[in-house]
Design brief:
Blueprint: H1 3-16, H2 37-44, H3 48-55, H4 64-73, H5 78-87, H6 104-112, E1 118-122, E2 127-130, H7 132-138, H8 151-157, H9 170-187, H10 192-204, H11 206-213, E3 223-229, E4 233-243, E5 249-256, H12 259-271
Antiparallel strand pairs: 1-2, 1-5, 3-4, 4-5
Helix pairs in contact: 2-3, 2-4, 4-5, 10-11
GO molecular function: DNA binding
Protein name: Helix-turn-helix protein
InterPro entries: Cro/C1-type_HTH, Lambda_DNA-bd_dom_sf, MLTR_LBD
Amino acid sequence: MQRDELADFLRRRRAAIRPADVGIADGPRRRTAGLRREEVAMLAGMSVDYVVRLEQGRSSQPSAQLLAALARALRLSEDERAHLFRLAGHQPPPAAGPAALARAGLIRMLDLLGDTPAMVISDLGEVLAQNRMSVLLSGDQSGFAGDRRYLIHRWFTEPGARAVAEPGEQERHARQHVADLRAVAGRRAGDPLVTGLVDRLLAASADFRRLWAEHEVAQRRADRKTFRHPRVGRLTMDCETLVTPDLGQKLLVLTPADAEARERLELLRVLGAEDFPATHHAGSA
């Protein structure tokens, strides 16, 4: 691990980002060039103290998961991300596949959406990036490893993953997850990443086996879903999905479906992340 080089790289990348680039208001009293350390910490989902220690060359070796979070927060390119991993003493993850970066254009759209919850996910349901309002609404879904990084795997193997959705909507969401995976499996026939995920789900979940046997196929697009939030209650949201030309990544945008949801979403924005339950992870994107 090259602590001094890592510290210098992180400081310079932080200074190179304008607050507006990541959806943060640039107030009149700002004296720091680029982002503040606490803003990087918020975007990366880690403590300010840890960011300080990294930038001062005093930290222990960061995990690959923390490095991926920093790469997203600092909007690093694939080359910059690989450099970050090497400085920290890790082998860079592949540019494609399960550790793929969200496309730069989708990240810019994510930032421009500001107070509208939105996230970028892969075609297999791995969350690649979220904006602040998405994290406040449905929890940080980008820090999982192994099969848990896939929304569909958590949905069918972890009962708590369904808790964010209304009980009456859970069967519909389950069918949508499976039909969407069927579409991906057809498009990426023979891809071991897809077939392996399907095989493991078939082995792990009777519910998944039941729905997979029905052979429903449908790519998820527009939808309406009701979130059960632990702080502000029920929010009915309309979900629009924008898909990249190669169908490899999606931008999911959630907008309030009614006045009540709009008021509760605004309350959530005002409340912010203070005392936000650390265990609140959604599984029904």
